[in-house]
Amino acid sequence: MIYTWRDLAKSSSEISFNNTLERLPEIDFGLPGSKEAFSFKISPGISSYSTKISELNQKHLAPMLEHAKKVIPAHKHIQTPIYLMATAGMRLLDDDSQKQILYRACEFFKKNSIFYIKNCKAHFNVISGEEEGAYGWLSVNYLKNRFLPLINHTSEQSQLPSQSQNSLLSRSTTGEAETFGFLDMGGASTQIAFQLNSKISDISQDEITKIKLMKIDGNSIEVNLFVTTFLGYGTNEARRRYVESIASKTPKIADFEYPVISDPCLPKGLFVQVKSNNFVLMGSGKLDSCVKETYKLLNKKEFCAKPPCLFNGVHFPTLNLKNMQFLGVSEYWYASNDILQLGGLWDMFKFIKKARDFCSLDWNSAKSKYIDTPGIIEDRIRLQCFKASWIITILHDGFGILPELFLDSNSDVDAALESLSRSDHKPNFHSINEINSREASWTLGAILLKVSESIPNKRDFNSTLSFIRLPKSSKKSGQTGDEDFGAGIQETTPDSVLKVEVHIKFRPF
């Protein structure tokens, strides 16, 4: 991704204060007036090169660098910072593999370009799941103008102690946060982030993610979030775990024989050979059965070391998420819209019906119907039934953002839907890909924080500027100094690799 923003050294008299985007730094996508694409994506992801490191430069890094050189004026290269921020696919790798890839990437960019790199540690890293969630939360609320009440409040109450301000900022007249909650579903992990309010009592300061942003007038706003990540709960990793669970229940037979096992999460008539486990999956295309199977992947009965827990033994504060508005990106959008054409406000009944209809198609019919659709590849068609089921499971029975469908894996889908139809629940979830024609990506939140860091504090030039302060329990990997890169190189391959996009951001001076 390529971003530009105003020169904040200009006189404040040139800056309008009519809306949120101008009270916080105003960030644009790409170059103003340029028709060149500001987004560049390449597959496979960078983590896939852990076992073929010699191919990393030419097959992965070079195409991205050439795109950046093409889009950004040559005389601006030396003044343009460039960042590589890797996500869950890289988090699945061991530390030595991460360091090796980051070192190679940094050295490649320094050798083959003059883009500004202060040091490798600052510009090339693997961000934690909590950081990814916090950046995403910043991004969607920035694009939705949801910081406006916070900004107005700090302008009116600038003399209040910061603690009092923050307590007031986190509440609307109803006592609930005015900002949107954020959900991101990738291939390897899923994140949830939302603003905390004063009604939550079972959360300690050590579990709070604190965000401080500088407005362009030099004043700051502060927000407390709860952010958590579930590695292994992205769609690709969930599918891998699902196949492993099937393998664990399959009796071993002669090496030359491959047992055929029915899979309700694959289209009818599709046969998939699982070579690593010596069996064949035969699609039966039954959404209801697939949802019951994906429910088991939540690991609801996992030991909870610090109650209360949501699923997989992960602590989560006690609150009713059904009263909050959430926006979901990435696979929440793709699984809803690419084939089913149901992106936007979540309608459970329409989603179930269209997902059932799709899952019941035989493989040849599904492939011929959708393969020529722009942006649809065969892998999307093959896994659509599973991914639709997984999204249903996570939203309703995982995070509980929507009413629960099941009390256990033996519950009936139609009975659950009948119960849901009698409830007074109002839809509170939207899947999105863009907001006001701008991509809803966590990368915008990351660059917003970096731009905000350049604004001096109006009251105290020596005070801490913008930051994200993560909970103490959050582990950040892959962020090592130059001297640590490449130590103890060990090439390994993760079981499943998320397509990691490398995001290029710059500022023309």
Automatic annotation (TrEMBL):
Record-listed ATP binding positions: G187, A188, S189, T190, Q191
Tagged with keyword Transport: no
Keyword Nucleotide-binding assigned: yes
Active site, per annotation: E132
Similarity comment: family membership: Belongs to the GDA1/CD39 NTPase family.
Assigned keywords, A-Z: ATP-binding, Hydrolase, Nucleotide-binding
Name this protein carries in UniProt: Uncharacterized protein
Molecular function terms, GO-annotated: ATP binding; GDP phosphatase activity; ribonucleoside triphosphate phosphatase activity; UDP phosphatase activity
GO BP terms, alphabetized: CTP metabolic process; UDP catabolic process
InterPro entries: GDA1_CD39_NTPase
